[in-house]
Description:
CATH 1.10.630.10
Amino acid sequence: MDIQQLLGLFILLSIVVLFIQYYKRRWPVVNFPPGPTGWPFIGTILSIRNEVFLRAIADKLKPQYGKIFSLMQDVPIVIVTGYDAINEVFQSNKGFDFASRKEPMYLLQLHNPKKLGVFLADYSESWQQQRRFALSTLRGFGFGKTSFEKKITDEVSLLLSHLKDIARVPQDLSTLLTSGVANVMCDTLLGCHYDHNDIEFQHILHVLEECFEIHGRKKSRMLDSVPISRPFLKQHAQQVIDLNEEWYAFLMSKVAEHQKAFVADTEPRDFIDCYLAKGLEEPGIFTIEDLKYVLSDLFSASTDTTSNTLKFALLYMVMNPDVQEKVHQESMRVVGTSRLPCLEDRDKMPYTAATIYEIQRLSSIAQSIPRCATVDTSLAGYSIPKGTNVVCNIWSLHLDPNLWPDPERFDPSRHLNDKGEMVKSPHVLPFGAGRRVCMGETLAKMELFLFFSSLMHQFKFDLPPGREPPSLDPVPGLTSCPFPFEVIIEEYL
Ligand code: HEM
């Protein structure tokens, strides 16, 4: 055999080994959920290259592979569509089988490599300690209870007075809505409050927004799914790192201010103070590094999701003026003209509650919920090895035509019974469910009701005359957010 033949044989053998290794990673066990096989180095990216949203990917692959299928990104990933299987992931009798978080893809790993905090943390003792402490501390501040209402209504009043100043001029209200929601968390977590026009505040909220949005860009998807693209996309990866570093630097500057002023055994002013005190009791667990990620999770998970829901709420209202009018009329009937809506009114305003519910169904702010198998297990008859990333496709569930007649139609009355009472559905899961269910569900519901009902009570929102109707599709990102749009505000009272 001459040198050329040897070289040829070597190349052939290398290719065979490469394919075998790829196949072993792609199909980790027999009876793994089906899906396109893909290719070494690029995985299954070619099969989904034109689709930005998981929902579209599922629509494309479902006819061939069914409701549960797998893709190969850097690692295999199982996409779960359909209520029964999603319910199995969330509520499985097996308890904690899917209670870990999906292994963060490349970009998330860059800024939280140890998976600290709450959201990205594995199902572990440390996650339990951080989550339990955060929840009990926030509850101590009245979080999720009516005693917290004043904090929110103060922000609502501020927002309304800003809106009065800009009535009748076309405006994009995104920044004002985000500022209102963010200030609730600034107050509780960081012990500060910002004016809506504060430049530092606006800048940092913009950075936070970009941190979410940048993950939806094509380059980010390439970085996450195709490892060989990484040397070519270093600049983009650096942009993601820089954004996150700026966000963390803001939080850590607040922590540093608290550390300077901290006096043990005195009344804590806010969440940071409570955490610093806990760190003195259990220094190995409640560290400053953990605090950075816990703060980030609580702030970003609450601000981005709640403000995006409110932005979609406005969008659906200008696109459905008849619904807007009914919500307004209900608030006038129940609340009258001498005050703003409060939490006690919520049960007496079923149409408003159903409208918020319908907004949550259609906007699916958390389009997909990332989980990870904690043990070797099964799902809808398929074998799922420990460590497999499992993504619940919530957007498809919320638009499943078998569950929702004419699913894309905005129709709050589908959540009302014959008596006009609001009826919840097990098929609406904006906050996830089970062991990793959203920590802020109660607070989010309070905020959504108080902000939304007060806006509808006080103002009429319209599209500026002659404008094209805005798209109802979301901007691609970690969560759903509408594309920018302007409205005209008219004061009722
Ligand atoms: C409309 C608003 C909100 C939506 C749609 C939303 C949605 C979600 C979803 C879908 C999850 C994943 C649940 C799962 O895996 O089953 C989650 C987790 C989480 N949410 Fe929310 N959320 C909202 C508001 C909030 C607020 C106000 C907070 C403030 C505390 C918050 C904090 C968290 C945290 C810390 C987690 C991680 C929980 C864990 O992994 O243990 N969220 N949220």
